[in-house]
Every structure is written in C-alpha cells, then in structure tokens.
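Attaching the record inline, Q. Sequence:
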Amino acid sequence: MHPDPEAEQGAEQTPASPDIRPWWRSALHWLRSHPVLSILGAVLLWVFAEAATIPWFAVADLRSENPEETAMMRQRREEAEAAGKPLTIVQEWVPLTTLPRHFRDAVIVAEDGTFYRHGGIEWYEVWESLRRNLKEWRLARGASSITQQLAKNLYLSTDQTPVRKLKELVITLLLERELEKDRILELYVNLIEWGPGLYGVEAAARRYFGKPAARLTLEESIRLAAVIPSPLKHRPDRESRYLRFHARVIRERMRARSMLPAKADPAERPSALSPADAVDAEKDTTDGL
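Structure, as predicted:
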C-alpha cells in the first residue's frame, strides 16, 4: 500500500501548538528571571502609592478654609467605636487675633520656640532627637515643630513609623510654602487635641475654665500650653507633678524672653519641684514625635 502524498504534505505543514500559558504564569516567570527589576518596580509602586496620599494641592485651600474634621479626629473616633465607647467631638473656631497675646506666647515657647524663624522643620532638634532616641533605644525626645504637629493632626495619625514621619516632613514643607505663619498657628491652636473629644483652645477654655478663650488669664494659658504634649493623660485644671514641672518651664522661658514681668505674681509663682517631678514629667513628653 502506497502512502498518500497529500496526507504526508499536510502533516508536514501542521504548525506547532502555541504556548497557551495563563498571563499570570508568564508574568511570574518574568519576575523570577529579573529579580532586581522586580524589586525596583515594587519599590516604585509603593512610593507612588504613598505619594498619592499626600495632599499636594489641598493644602492651598487652608489659606481661607477652616477644616471641619482632621485625621486625628477620625482616628480618635474610630478608636472609641472599636472600644465600644462612642466619642463626641467638641470644637469651635476662633480667630487668632481674638486670643490673648500671653496665650500665643505660652504655646510658642512650650512647643516651638523658633516657630517664626524656621522654615517648618528645626533640623537641629531633629538630629538631637535621633541621637538621643538611638542612644537610649526608645522614644525619649520629641522633635516636632508646630507645623509638623499640624501636618500630623490634619492629614496623618499617631503611628510612630518612618514612613509616617517622612510624609509628615513633606506635608510640613507644603504648609510652610502655602500658608503664612500666623495662619499656621491659628490652625494649630484651633485643631490640636486638648482632651478626650476636645479640640481647639475655645473648647478647652470653656471645658476647663468655664470661659471663652479670649478671656484666658496668663496662668490658665500656661496650664493649657503645659498639657499639649500629653492631653489625654493630664488636665490643665488638675494639679500634678507633670503640670507643675511643665508650667514652671514655660514660665521661665517666657520670662527669659521678656514676655513676663521680672518678678512673678505670688499667686503664679510655682511651688518647688523635686527631682521626682522632672522624672515624672519626662515620661510623657514623646507624643509629639
């Protein structure tokens, strides 16, 4: 029996079966074959994803708009709901120009003595913070300027991670570029936390001293400034080692800058502090990192 020539010719022309592997297998094969490029691509994707969460254009709106809610408020509300304790947010806006000068001075010397002279980041404090924290292997020293604290409150969280800190620095520079210093301070004193569910100086003044912020006395202003680093642990209307220590430091700084009379009023003179006072106060000074 002779073979069929046409059949043999057709068999010779039959193409090989194509590679029909799923796309994801092909992608996986490529990733395994190019490990360096794969890692670089993953890093770039992560950087772009993190950068997309930075408010590149929204910061400019703060020149004329007062935020109704901040990232810090949302975080505290979510934490309270998770604990089964719903949180009521209390906050009322007041212009910076209506606040007593001694209140503004107390806040600045307490939190950021060179606020009006630096560009948002006090690099000396940043390096000193890193040096001490690495030396003691704990968060022993804060390094956040007023603008950095505002950036964290507005857009970030209290997470102590390098990524959050890097984003904080970027947002800080955006705030300094887009806003005047007085506007930054106005946003700060109206939005920072002063107790559970309590935000801004107006809400704090009414809660703790039963008066509007415009009528705060020197001593009340110093007490409010003293608890800014740890507002959930300490109250300005209750005596404690922490409060006495920080109020004394603020008062001495104000006097050194000629913001106070050379001799303090007897009613405002702080009581003597023991070494235990300073140790107790130092434990709660890392919230601003």
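The mean pLDDT is 81. The chain has one domain: 57-282.

More tomorrow.
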